[in-house]
Amino acid sequence: AQKVTQAQTEISVVEKEDVTLDCVYETRDTTYYLFWYKQPPSGELVFLIRRNSFDEQNEISGRYSWNFQKSTSSFNFTITASQVVDSAVYFCALSESNYGQNFVFGPGTRLSVLP
Amino acid sequence: DVKVTQSSRYLVKRTGEKVFLECVQDMDHENMFWYRQDPGLGLRLIYFSYDVKMKEKGDIPEGYSVSREKKERFSLILESASTNQTSMYLCASSSPRTNYNEQFFGPGTRLTVL
Q1: pLDDT band for position B1 (50/70/90)?
Q2: Which of A75, B35, B49, B99 would give a disulfide with B90, using CB separation of 3.0 to 4.6 Å?
Q3: Res. B77: pLDDT tops 80
Q4: Cβ B32 vs Cβ B23: under 8 Å
């Protein structure tokens, strides 16, 4: 069965620090998709990125970057020069099924960025 | 702009009441999901539906039922609300035809059962 682990429950950083959120997943499938979502205090989950299992290329989007390593089953998320607006709960998720029904979320990491 | 809407942002009910939480999506998605979110427990899947009138139990279906009479609407029903069902409820939708099954979420309903 698939599983997503986010070992960091809460992280606090000071503004402008870099921070990495860890995500480790387990799956027996060779085809799967990985996601990161952000949940700000307002409550609505906002999609950040998805990756399929055949694409190990790292991605950078502004201050955000993602490091996908199949060898360690990890999909880590780094925020560079963090800002107060980055304060949120971040969820990593895994989808095994082509039909999207086996979608598993990690427990989330609460990031607090202090001014 | 794609949209998932939920009928209420905040809801207060009494123990024993029947509670309906409604979710509507306008993206013609086949899959719809209900989660509850509690501190320290992340998102837990209650039920999902992959087609009209079809439903599957998730990880924590006890005390809940669902209804999907139309493709765009997925309702979560608490037959007799209890205090341990006080939680944030999130609805989501997705499609295997698009976006690698990315789930699109509604704003959530924070339910308090007194």
Answers
A1: low
A2: B35
A3: yes
A4: yes
Positions in chain A short of pLDDT 50: none
- CB-nearest partner of A103 from B42, B101, B110: B101
pLDDT bracket for residue B84 (50, 70, 90)? very high
**Is some CB atom of chain A closer than 8 A to the CB atom of B33?**
yes
- Please answer whether residues B3 and B26 qualify as being in contact, where contact means their C-beta atoms are separated by less than 8 angstroms: yes
What amino acid is encoded at A25 in this protein?
Y
Interface contact B105-A45, CB threshold 8 A: yes
Residue of B nearest to A8 (CA): B40
Contact check, Cβ <8 Å, B95/A100:
yes
Which pLDDT does position A1 carry in this prediction?
A: 74
Spell out a b/e string for B71-94, using b for 16 or more CB atoms within 10 Å of the CB, else e. bbebbbebeebeeebbbbbbbbbb
B contacts of A101 (beta carbons < 8 Å)? 31, 48, 50, 56
Tell me the CA end-to-end span of chain B in Å, nearest whole number: 37
Structure tokens at B24: 């509507």
Residue A62 CB partners (closer than 8 Å, separation 6+): none
Does the pLDDT of residue B66 top 80, yes or no?
yes
